[in-house]
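Following up on my earlier thread - several people asked me to post the actual chain instead of describing it. Fair enough. Here it is, all 326 residues.
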Amino acid sequence: MRRSTLTGSHMRITMILNQDGGTIRGLDAREFADMACAKLSKRGGECIPRLVSGKDLVRTLNQAADDSQTDIIVAGGGDGTISAAAGACFRSGKTLGVIPLGTMNMFARSLGLPLDPEEALDALAQADERPLDIATANGRPYVHQFSVGLHASMVHQRASLDTSTRFRKITSTIKTLGRVILKPPQLGVEIDTGSGRSRRLVSAVSISNNLFGDTPLAYAAQLDEGVLGVYCSRALEPGTVFRMALRAAVGRLSEDPDVSVETADRVTLKFPTARKSSKAAIDGEIIPLEREVECVCHPGALRTLVPKTTAALADADAPDRRLASA
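Reply from S.P.:
Thanks for posting it. Predicted structure:
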């Protein structure tokens, strides 16, 4: 696996902080930005801070992606912010750095970053560059998952509740889970993984960027396996949804008898009976559900700053993974 430290006097880091998201609301944003740039400047070169509102985030990310002087885009915010930044880096070939300023910080967890923002900045100042995987759904990049059914319904309903802190987000998630348990969604889907095609009546479909780990929060344990995780539940009754939620809460979703788990590098989903109002979720953002969705894994296509401890573990595991795939 290619490694680079991306340091030097001519390197430029553009740091973009979403002031509307997560834990940064409780901080002095300008003071935090100055401190963050001071830490990141230890990599060499200069750090340019950009404090933006949520509505200006994508435009600012695209400007940084188009800036020929910018080498690294460091994004601070929640999972939606990090997903948007990853998409900008994927399209432009720039390197992504992550400051966990959200409530759940799924991608930061996958990277092995400290969840304390200052500790994360210390790790980024010394981090290695790694080529990690990113996925697309009909060409739209994502780093966590594309989902239809149970998860998308929960995200859609939770959007109307207060999720401004991690505690409130968990509370809102529990409330929406209760609603979904009482009336689980059911939909028809045709799934083509390249090795086989099947038609099913399901309550949930999720296509993840690499397989989820055995943790209570569903995030990838490794981001360089070059696969999509294909998670699919049969059509469920309230009792079985509750059981599945309990298994997920203790990190044992893959052991649920009502959930199938496969891997593929490309998956096509068709929803022949989907209504025009049907929704999907991609990295936590609700979008209209298209009748046909192609999810593709792009191995090593996202250059990312990874803490040295995580990079060292990846190097140690690499011989075993190569042997397993031989």
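The longest strand covers residues 292-306. That should answer part of your original question.
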